[in-house]
Every structure is written in structure tokens, then in C-alpha cells.
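user: can you give me the structure for this one chain? C-alpha cells are fine.
assistant: on it. calling the predictor now.
[tool input]
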Amino acid sequence: MKILALRRATLPLLTLPVLFPLPLLAADNNNTLVVSAAPAENGLNELDTPAALSVVSGDEMRQAAARVNLSENLSSVPGLQIQNRQNYAQDLQLSMRGFGSRSTFGVRGLRIYVDGIPATMPDGQSQTSNIDIGSIDHVEVLRGPFSALYGNASGGVINVTTQQGQQPPTLEVSSWYGSYGSWRNSVKASGATGDGSHAGDVNYTVSASRFTTHGYRDHSAAQRNLGNARLGVRIDDLSTLTLLFNSVHIDAQDPGGLTPAQWRDNPRQVVSNVSLYNTRKTVDQTQGGLRYQRQMSENDDLSVMLYAGIRETTQFQSIPAAVQRPPSHPGGVIDLTRHYQGVDTRWTHRDTLLSIPVALTGGLDYETMTERRKGYENFTVSDGVTHLGDQGNLRRNERNLMWTLDPYLQTAWQLTDKLSLDAGVRFSTVNFDSNDFYVRPGNGDDSGEARYHKWLPAAALKYAFEPGWNGWISAGRGFETPTINELSYRADTTTGLNLGLRPATSDTLEIGSKKRIGNGLLSAALFQTDTQDEIVADASSGGRTTYKNAGETRRRGLELSLDQQFAWDWRLKMAYTLLDARYRSNACGSDSCDGKRIPGIARNMLYAGVGYLPEQGFYAGSEVRYLSQIAADDHNAVNTPSYTVAALNSGYKWRVDNWTLDLFGRVDNLFDRHYVGSVIVNESNGRYFESAPGRNYSLGVSLSYAFL
């Protein structure tokens, strides 16, 4: 598609894009990126952003793809290691510049937003299961020092913005069918009354989808129902109101990991306990949000974001019944109910100071979550018969409260025609309060509270060598608190929260450059991040995992990317990441890990993709991904093999009157490589490996009608 091929090359201006708290970017009716707090004509484009920022359009995310996981089309972003575990009970495995690699489930170490609503809880845990790829307008991936200005994360920020409805009203249905009994059906309706500039104008986008798979591995079946809605109303000439709704339901089996020997013998197998205890997970999440924006004067804007949601999770683990006998054991079933809500209010003022154009934004971000956590035995006993995989006696009962309160201030100074300075600071407070209601002989009171404070400054100096070429240098500090799971237990088995666990603090220095080459963009970033008190797993015994601070770590890296349109309908995308991430002090108890690689992180990542993408008719594309070996444990004693995989896709798009039909097919892992898809870091039983599928096939079709 020509529009798809041209979008990166013709991105209009972004005003201070990475300095303002999310939601900071919005899409206008021309699919351009603008800051909601300032007129688009006063901004800077992606080329001029003084940070490592990648923008992937929704059309790219959906191009000949299953539209199920973010991992399908984000591999072209340098610095982002995103892998499909083939396990929908544990979500994707994401790490950015090496942060988040320790996560055994969900996402940690980075912040994720969907239409301004955090998919990251106040303690730093994130999830991606509620993101509807069929409704995405664009995805922004921010790496580097300025990600510190978003609070409790070290690696970066992923901001997903869904489509704003526009004329003409359009109805689209789509289906996808793949190997291993996988299929997805979805429907989307979008439209608008008026052009959005008059009082009473309304825009809407509503979508629903269902995904089902038998799974590549044994005991890995899953199904997911997802709904998403966005309704925008122009109240008057100066203000708009946007209503947001999202709901997801997931039922997924959990195949767990394999030892290296098991993986080599049969990558599709599961260990016996997985089947015996029927390991599985159920998730129900519903959330809503309200965003109000008003232009208070020619130079002042107000934005208020309110949201609330509930997430209920039940997970059956494969912990043997014998292991659960000690009274201190929390059981093999986790039952969570989380209520979360928040508000982000900001004011933006634009003026001049000593003839220097200045933009100033101040705001306050408040987030809170109340969690009711229960644990049960994963077996029952009836008439002397033990039934495995059933919810049994209560073994854990606690109420956890987490909240954050973050005031922030950011400024942007256009010092000369070529030189600009962006700077900001955020004061982040994260509070944990746990009340243990399950106190028994042999199981003491684990109640406790902890509070963390940190100043998070960041600054960048950018110089424009010429209109299509600039360079920048930036520095910033970020921090990452322990999650409530990591605070729950002490290594010495005494009761109470692990209050000796400190937040990790990271200082990053980055230098980079971007240059426009014809209808493309070449970018490079060189960085170093030094972290104090890196949080790592300490020990795992009796179903309890404890954590500790590792002292010092260092991450040094190089990120290169090229997005180039040529010969009008052709597009080339390439990305390379070199990341050397190592411990600089002991993290392994009695055995020193000083100098060892941090597990879960690939040293080299390479992506190359080329596509022929006309507006209609035949299209085709291919891509190649390379990932070097990954250490699975702190000692670097177990490593995954490096691998290279390729994929091909082809399709045909018909446009007749008001109808558009898009039919495509694709082959992934074209050469049927045998490789590890993801790693469970420091898995206590040595089952580190999660298998990736062999050669697999899929077909997709979408049909849309525009009511002109």
C-alpha cells in the first residue's frame, strides 16, 4: 500500500513528543501524529525527536498478520526483545534494552499504555492481553533516558493508540486461520459525524474479536474474547471528551518449561505434573476511561485522564501436593482480584523567555490498586481419594494496597534555530501496604508496608546539522521498585515483607543521530546504563521465591535502524541491536557472577524485511530475524542456541466501489528451524526453555464496506 509505505517518510511534526506524560500523542484524521497539548504546526517530527523513538503504524501491525500478538510486527524495533512464549497463560516476554528479562510471567521493567490508560500496575507489573491489534492506529516505542519521566520502570515505554473514527462510516469483518487449530474472527465498526471541528461532532471505533488455538505444545490450548471501544465528542470549539472501554476474557492452559534435554528430545512435550494438575489460567478484565481536553487560551491547554478497572485471575500451578504440606506454603492455586484506578492531570503553557520559545508542562499522576490475593491447595481429598487439579483448602489470604503519587515538570527550550534543550523531572512515590489475614501456627503474620521515593531527572540537547539530519545527547535516571510478589517473602523465612529489598536505580547516558535518506529514515543510538541494586531471584523453595539486590550491573548497547521506501511501492526495514549486559558484582550467593551476562538477554538481534506494497492488487513480503544465544541462569551455565528464522507472505487486495477485500497467506519459520522461543530465567527446576513452533502456515481474509 502506498500510504503504508510513505507514512514513516512523511510523518508530520511532533511537539515535545517524549517529554509529556502519556497520553502524549494522538492521531488526527489524516493519520498524523500530533501532541494533544499543542498545535501540530508548532511541533517536531520523528526525525527531530531527541530520543530513541520508533513509531509503528496500525497498518504495519495488521499487514498480512494474525492480529493476535504484539510480537508479530514489532521485531523491527531496535532494542526491543519481544518473544511469543507459545503460552497464553503467561503473556508475551518483553524486554527493552535488557530490562524486564527476569520476568517469568507478564511484563516488567517497562511501562505500557493503551489510549492513555496504563497496562502497568502501580508496582510495575504489565500485561498486553487487552490490546486489540485490529483497532491500533499506531504504537510508539520509547527507549532511553526520557522513559524515566513515566515513573516506575527502567527499560522504556510502549504507548498504544487506537483508531479515531472518521468519515465515511466503515464496517469490517476479518478471519485468520493457522496451524495447530488456531483461528481468529473479528468485527470492527468506525465512523464519524462531522469533521470533528464543530460542537456536537462525534467519532467512534468499536471492535470485538475471538481467538482460539489448540497450541503448538501439548497442554497449551487457549481462547481469548476481546472487546474495545472508543467514542469521541467535541463538546464545544475549545474542548473534547473521549470515552474508552476495553474488556478481555482468557482461558489458557499452561504448558510450563522444559529442561534442555527435554527440549532436544521433544519440544512439544510437557512434564508429567502439568497434565496431572491441569495447570491453567483464567483472566477477566474490564476497564473504562474518560479523557477531557480543553484549550484554556491561545497558549494554555488542560488535559485530564480518569480511568478504573477490575482484573480477576485464577491460576492452577503444578506444585506437588507433598510440597504443600508445610503450614507456611501458599498453595498451588492463585486467586487474585485487583481493582485499579487513577487520574493524570496536566497543564501546558507556551511562551517566550528572553526571546527564547519555551514550553512548560506541569502535572500530577496518581495511580492506585487494591489486590485481594488468596491461595488454595491444588487438590482435594474425598473419601480417601486425592483429586489433583481441583481447588482445595485455603492457604493464603491477604489484602495488598499499592499506590503511586508523581508530580512532574517538563520544559522545552528552542535556544537557536539549530540547538534545542529538553529537560524534565518527576518525583515518584510508590507505596506498598500488605495485610495478612491467614495467620496460623507455623505460618506467621506477613503483614507489612514499604514506601519508596525517587527524583527522576532527564535532559537532552539536540543539534540540527541540516534540515534532514540531527544529533542529540541525553541523560536521565530511572528506577524500578520490587513488585508485590517480590516483596512477599524473606530469604531467612521470617515473617513480614522483604523490606530489605531496595528499588533498582539506573543512570543512562545516550548519544544518537537521525538522518533522512530520500523517503526513509536512518537512526543510530549508542547508550550506557549503570544500575544499582538490580533486583534478581535469590532462592526458590517450597513454592516460595525470594528476591535480592544484585549490586551493580551495566548495559552497553548500539541500536541501528533503517526504514526506506524505494521504487515507490517497495519498502525495506532493517534493525540491529548490540547489547552487552553484565553483572558488575556478585549476584549468585557464594558463587560470584561478577562479569557474567545478565540472563534472558540476547547480545545480538538482527531484523531485515522487504515488501512490495501497492495500494491494491498483488503484494508480497519477506523477513529474516536473528537472535544470538541467551543465558538462562545467573551462572551462564545454560544457554539457548542462536537462531535465524525466515517468513514469507503474499496476498491480493481488491477494491471495487465501496468494497475492499484483502486475502493473504503466510509461512513462518520457513526453513523449519528448531529453536527456543523464550527463556524462563533462573527456573528452579531447570526447566528454562519454552519451545517455538516449527514451520507453520496461515491464511487470512478481511472484507470492509464504506458507507459513502
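assistant: here you go. Residues 1-44 have pLDDT under 50 and may be disordered. Residues 2-7 form the longest helix (6 residues).
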